[in-house]
Specification:
The protein has 77 residues and is mainly alpha-helical. It has a single domain, classed as Winged helix-like DNA-binding domain superfamily/Winged helix DNA-binding domain (Arc Repressor Mutant, subunit A). Helices cover 42% and strands 5% of the residues. Strands 1-2 form a two-stranded antiparallel ribbon. It is elongated. The termini are far apart.
C-alpha cells in the first residue's frame, strides 16, 4: 500500500503503537483528530513537522487494518 513505509513501530516510542516516521505522533492520534472533524490542513497546522503524505499514510494504514480478519484457532482436542 502506498505510504505505509511512513508508519513505524518501535517499543521505545509510544509503547510500540504505530507512529508517523518514528515520531511521537501516533496513527490513533491523527485518526482521532480526523474523526473529530479536524481537516488535514488543521492537523498539519497544529503539527508543522507532519507532511500531507503522513495523513494519507494514516488513512492507508487504517484501511489496511480494518480489512484484517482474525480466525479462531481450532482445538485439537
Amino acid at each position: 500500500m502506498p505510504y505505509l513505509d511512513r508508519i513505524t513501530h518501535n517499543p521505545q516510542v509510544m509503547g510500540g503503537k504505530p507512529c508517523i516516521r518514528g515520531m511521537r505522533v501516533t496513527v490513533g492520534m491523527i485518526l482521532g483528530a480526523l474523526a473529530a472533524g479536524r481537516s488535514a490542513e488543521e492537523i498539519l497546522a497544529a503539527y508543522p513537522y507532519l507532511q500531507p503524505e503522513d495523513i494519507q499514510a494514516t488513512l492507508s494504514y487504517a484501511a489496511w487494518r480494518a480489512q484484517e480478519t482474525e480466525l479462531p484457532l481450532e482445538s485439537s482436542t
